[in-house]
Description:
The protein is α+β, with helices and mostly antiparallel strands. The chain contains nine helices and six strands; from the N terminus they run ααββαββαββααααα. The chain has a domain at about 1-145. Helix content is about 35%, strand content about 10%. The strands form two sheets. The protein has a four-stranded antiparallel sheet with strand order 2-1-3-4, with helices on one face. It has a two-stranded antiparallel sheet with strand order 5-6. The N and C termini lie far apart (about 70 Å).
Amino acid sequence: MLTLGFFYLLRPGEYAHTNNPESAPFRLQDIHLMVGCRRLYHYTCPVHELHAATFACLEFTTQKNGVRGELIGLGRSGTSAFCPVTSIVNRVIHLRQHRASPDTPIYSYFNNRWCAVTSTILTTFLRTSTSVLGPSLGLSPSDISVRSLRSSGAMALLCGKVDTDRIRLLGRWRSDEMLRYLHVQAFPVVAAIASTMLQHGNFTLIPNNPHPHQGGYRGL
């Protein structure tokens, strides 16, 4: 669920159980898997075909800021350990094994009974990791919550020089609200700014047309 929140720039209520009554999680029926251009019927296709999926989409139904019927999709990341396609395939396999209905939220898991991955659980995992890895990065556990995944994903795209229009499309931001999620102090974003300014700071201005009384051409 952490992987999906990061790669798809999701809000917590879209991939984790929250106490917010307005939350609208994605469900098993909202998943679309493809192998190349061929769509899989993920309810019944063989497991080996699920593992062969190259593209995974989530379909918006009642999610906030989503257009009903619109899909957001991603290909494989290049590593199975942290990949949106692999994560969705694993979700489908688990839900299928326990005969989940199509309207089962994707955050559900079966452990003698149906349980839910909550935003609190995910925040606890993130803060535990931050307590170990964070000090070297200048972070403390209190700096991190499950809501950090959305901004972290957006920052990863910005640092990768993905243009802001594409980031806005993936995150369904309809205004410059996205800018609140981006951190100007991120090293890859600002490291080359000074040298860029120096290299491209030598410019001339386009001259204005001279006034007729100051010489130059006269208008007709």
